[in-house]
């Protein structure tokens, strides 16, 4: 089967549920990232202050910080708006679209999971 026809309301419900799951995962990850980053910066500040107070040579390395998790809410919102504005009773999806919209397997999903899993 190369395509599938799904009632628009059913697809909308699935995409909205996927969006909510994504938003929760992202918000949790950002809270964890913020806490970890603040703790790390506090440690670096102590090292910096010690170096200044004691006239030690100082080399600050900030490249070890994790990047902030990226949200993809706009992609869900765009898709939701497209579904809401359709004048079709059923929406035809190809395999790729089905994986993205129904199975929530977007091209960015693996990177998103890797950047958020340590904070879950």
Number of domain units: 1
Q: Which range does the strand content fall in? A: 5-15%
Question: In which range does the helix fraction lie?
Answer: 55-70%
Following the backbone from N to C, one meets helices and strands in this order, namely: EHHEHH
Rg (C-alpha, Å): 22 Å
What spatial order of strands do you see in the largest sheet?
A: 1-2
Give a count of the beta strands, DSSP E runs of length 2 or more: 2
Q: Taking all residues together, what is the mean pLDDT? A: 91
- Kindly name the structural category: mainly alpha
Number of helices: 4
- Biggest sheet overview: 2 strands, antiparallel
Give the overall shape, derived from the CA principal axes.
Answer: rod-shaped
Q: How far apart lie the N and C ends?
A: 36 Å
Low-confidence stretches: none
Would you give an account of this structure?
By secondary structure, the chain is mainly alpha-helical. The protein has one domain (3-36, 69-119). The protein is built from 4 helices and 2 strands. The chain has helices at 8-53, 73-84, 95-101, 109-116; strands at residues 3-7, 90-94. The protein has a two-stranded antiparallel sheet with strand order 1-2. Helix 1 (8-53) packs antiparallel against helix 2 (73-84). The protein is rod-shaped, with a radius of gyration of 22 Å. 8% of the residues are buried. The mean pLDDT is 91.
Summarize the structure.
This protein is mainly alpha-helical and 120 residues long. Helix content is 61%, strand content 8%.
């Amino acid at each position: 089967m190369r395509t599938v026809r799904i009632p628009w309301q059913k697809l909308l419900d699935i995409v909205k549920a996927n969006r909510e799951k994504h938003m929760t995962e992202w918000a949790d990850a950002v809270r964890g990232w913020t806490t970890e980053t603040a703790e790390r910066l506090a440690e670096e500040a102590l090292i910096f202050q010690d170096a200044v107070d004691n006239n030690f040579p100082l080399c600050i390395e900030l490249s070890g910080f994790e990047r902030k998790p990226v949200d993809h809410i706009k992609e869900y919102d765009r898709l939701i708006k497209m579904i809401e504005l359709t004048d079709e009773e059923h929406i035809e999806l190809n395999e790729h679209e089905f994986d993205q919209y129904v199975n929530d397997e977007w091209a960015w999903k693996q990177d998103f999971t890797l950047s958020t899993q340590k904070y879950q």
